[in-house]
Sequence to fold (254 residues):
Amino acid sequence: MIKQKKLKMHEVKTLVLDEGDQLLVPEHIGTIRNIVKSTMASRQVMMFSATLKNETEQLAHEMTRDAEVIRINKEEEIPSGKVEHIFFSCEPRDKMKLLEKIARLEDIKVLAFINDITEISVVAAKLNFKELSVGLLHGELKKMERQAALKNFREGKLKMLIATDVAARGLDIQGVTHVVHIDMPKDINQYIHRSGRTGRMGADGTVISLVTDREERELKQYCRKINVPVSKRVFYKGQIVAEENRNPARINKK
Fold:
């Protein structure tokens, strides 16, 4: 739109870069630089990010003048609800069975993340074959398909929305009760971004990771670094329970 002169970039007073650490990466940095350069030097640039790597901060400084970094300390954080972090230990072939059990829980709105876009349609199709209301969201969908999936998810017509990180970037969906990491996040920042989709605006939430033995160690390292407890869970009689006692633990958020 900028190249076609449909946007009057010389009139832009404030340029906002949301999810900054996701934008200032090698595959997007060239585009972002061009957008910034297309605006007047007098404009204001604001960048927001839940996490900020040193290299990201350096790039941000290179594209701005006299930039001021404002960090929210833990004691200044906006109060939020209780978010429980749990995991299921499993082999990759067993993830579908666990996803099906999660999708059958009551009173849920699940946002599930997958790394490989080539697998997303297969996973959704298998769950829909089980007569479960599951949708998908990825970058190769047409705009109308994306809008329809989000509308159905927001209205409760879908219990689970399986998404890639790129497709879900910048979305603010209220009422997400559970975030599921079908695949292990690529790094701790991705874990934080995904997990932050639940427990918003003071609501409670649950973050579920489906991990192998090796990934379990990595997950525990992530949680130690962000200072949140993480516990192993199993399914028992259709409910998620603590492994040590198998007493039904209601995690359905109403």
Remarks:
- Strands lie at 14-17, 44-47, 83-89, 110-113, 134-137, 160-163, 178-181, 205-211, 230-236, 239-242.
- The chain has two domains: 9-62, 80-242.
- The chain has nine helices and ten strands.
